[in-house]
Amino acid sequence: MVREVRIYYEGDRALKPGFRAFLREIGNVATPRRWSIRLIEAKGRPVRDYHKARRANPDAWNVLLLDSEGAMISPAEHCERKGLSGLSDSVFWMVQCMESWFLADPGALKNYYGEDGFRESALKRNPSVEQIAKSDVLSCLRSATRETAKGQYHKTAHSFWRKSTRTWSGRPLETVTACSRR
What pLDDT digit, counting tens, does each position of 136-164 carry? Predict the structure, then answer.
């Protein structure tokens, strides 16, 4: 029986608190059963790192969370395209880009960027954030934030993505998953 679950996620160590908060319900189930849940950042080459992890930890359930980076036909086919054939029961696909989740909670964006200059009307209103193309997500974020004091959104220029884990980590799970259930 598996007693350790190792969840590898694509991204930086700074995302760990947000993932921990997001996956809190899993931890609540695991603790009384004495299962160990570990969150591990897969830096740079997550697929390669995941294959190494599977070899190094064969008794654990090694799980990989990846951005889908585009529309998906099926999880199994997406796994095959990414060099993860036969692993669709352990690879879970997130939104096309993590910024898609920012669109699920415009209030948090407004809180971060401030009222002055923030254009909420520029944000996409698709109830299924996973369906919004990566280019559209980034474009509408730049447009919504262009005139704010913090400046136009840029993935790394002012490290909003690092700060976002603090912004969203206190949000109820329902807030960010509601857009996925439609």
Answer: 999 999 999 999 999 999 776 644 444 44
Tell me the H-state helices in the chain. 16-22, 24-30, 46-56, 75-81, 106-113, 134-145, 160-169, 173-177
Strands 4-10 and 36-42: parallel
In order of their start, the domains of the chain are 4-94 (3.40.50), 98-180 (no CATH)
Contact between 98 and 11 under an 8 Å Cβ cutoff? The reply is yes
Q: Are 88 and 75 in contact (CB under 8 A)?
A: yes
By the 10 Å C-beta count (0-12 exposed, 13-18 middle, 19+ buried), 58 is classed as exposed
Distance between CA atoms of 42 and 12, rounded to whole angstroms?
A: 8
Contact call for residues 10 and 50 (beta carbons, < 8 A): no
Among residues 60, 101, 22, which one has the least CA distance to residue 50?
Answer: 60
Strand partners, 38: 6
**Does the global pTM surpass 0.70?**
no
Residues 6+ apart with CB under 8 A from 132: 96, 100, 103, 124, 126
